[in-house]
Specification:
Layout: H1 14-28, E1 33-39, E2 49-56, E3 62-71, H2 73-82, E4 92-96, E5 105-110, H3 123-144, H4 156-169, H5 175-197, E6 203-205, E7 214-217, E8 227-230, E9 237-239, H6 241-251, H7 264-274, H8 283-296, H9 302-305, H10 308-325
Antiparallel strand pairs: 1-2, 2-3, 3-5, 4-5, 6-9, 7-8
Helix pairs in contact: 3-7, 4-5, 5-8, 5-10, 6-8, 8-10
Length: about 325
Amino acid sequence: MPKGGADQIPADDPTALGSELGPALASATDGRLSDLRFFRTDWQRGGAATATGVWTAGDGTSREVVVKAPVGPVEHRFTRALAQTDALTPRVAASGTELGAYDLAWLVMERLPGQTLAHGCTKRDVADFIQSAALFYARALDTAGPPDEPPEPVDWARLVDRARAAVQANAIPDQQRWKEALKRVSRSLEGLVAEWRARPARFWRHGDLHLGNAMRRPDGSAWGPAGCVLLDLDRVEPGHWVADAVYLERVYWDRPEALHKVKPVGAIARELKKLGVDPGEDYQRLATVRRALTAACTPAFLDREGAPARLAAALGVLERSLADIGR
């Protein structure tokens, strides 16, 4: 926010935003940042934008970078901290918590070439992505320690009620099967929620773990070793890595071929063990409970989850999960 009564950051015009912040960024980086080009993505709101630019490294070479300003405290904290480790997250060229007349956090990070792993993903890509996720959990614990605060609780009862109401009010495919499955969930909901909330929330979870949030750093990069780099650390929060793994599954429930038969829960657990991190007890059971809860809520979001293939996939996951749990 502005210091000393300065004007607000321009909210809707990347050009105006660039003219406002560009000189301040150049000054804050001692002139090492140049050729800034601001743009706004579809999901950015208010006075937030991203820019591409060129960074002059200490050896005089030029590197392409991405600039984000303002940046939330969580993203700022974890991006900077993990950049100092071998975690496969963006390397940071410069950062700060003030910019000219504004109290705002900002980051200058490596710019990765090409597209995200969601485009033309191979089995090797998925395997490398899983390894990067496990390394993220390990290094987040190393740098930040276990979380001091519990995760924000999800109101599962409200979401399941919304799902049941949506199934009742809309002529969705397999409507009767949905009604029966959600009735079973409602009968067991207290126990399912209690089991999930009893999980040891001793990890930092990514919060938005999917193939569209990862890109490859190529061989020979000046930024560091080649690998699959996890992006967008703005949703990092206390929790359990299983929630991320099940979320990754959920993104691809209706197109499982995207994961090339890789099972995220078991795969991440194996990688954590290789890194000397205990994945926790009975994580497969915990994952099944999380799948049941997540799948049961799908009809609550028909506006974005209402495609027949999505609903059919979620219903299948729900029925199998309830059977595995014994509900």
